[in-house]
Design goal:
Number of helices: 6
Structural class: mainly alpha
Protein name: YeeE/YedE family protein
Distance between the termini: 39 Å
Radius of gyration: 17 Å
Order of helices and strands: HHHHHH
Organism: Vreelandella nigrificans
Strand content: under 5%
Number of domains: 1
Keywords: Membrane, Transmembrane, Transmembrane helix
Low-confidence stretches: none
Helix content: 55-70%
């Protein structure tokens, strides 16, 4: 198996595991996410535990991976070099948060929810893809 094929296969397996984790944890349900964001009403802390589990897993996982010295399917780690905040980053983060708060979906759960599409989900996906094209022009 070539390195490119192994890398692609590993990416698909990771995406499948991520989507499965979202489905099992209930994070593909926008009502659960909106319940977490509703701190003044019927607050649902479930998302906090899912995010906490993700942070702990990532914290441990990165340390284990970096102990190898290089990635399993590549020559070097591809880490972002840009470290300063700019208007594009802050604006994108604000748009992401507004979209997440209005719809209850962020990109991962939205794509994982494609098995049971709804009008709000499709509207979000159209807006998200439109945003990618607009961002490329900026």
């Amino acid at each position: 198996m070539s390195s490119a094929t192994a890398t692609t296969a590993a990416g698909y397996v990771a995406g499948l595991l991520f989507g499965l984790g979202l489905a099992v944890s209930g994070m593909t349900d926008p009502a659960r996410v909106l319940g977490f964001l509703d701190i003044a009403g019927a607050w649902d802390p479930t998302l906090m535990f899912v995010l906490g589990g993700a942070v702990i897993t990532t914290f441990i996982g990165y340390r284990l991976v970096y102990m190898r010295g290089r990635p399993l399917f590549g020559n070097s780690f591809q880490l972002p070099s840009k470290q300063e905040l700019d208007v594009k980053l802050l604006g994108g983060a604000a748009l992401f948060g507004i979209g997440w708060g209005l719809s209850g979906y962020c990109p991962g759960p939205a794509i994982a929810s494609l098995g049971g599409p709804s009008l709000p989900l499709l509207a979000l996906l159209v807006a998200m893809v439109g945003g990618w094209f607009i961002a490329k022009r900026c």
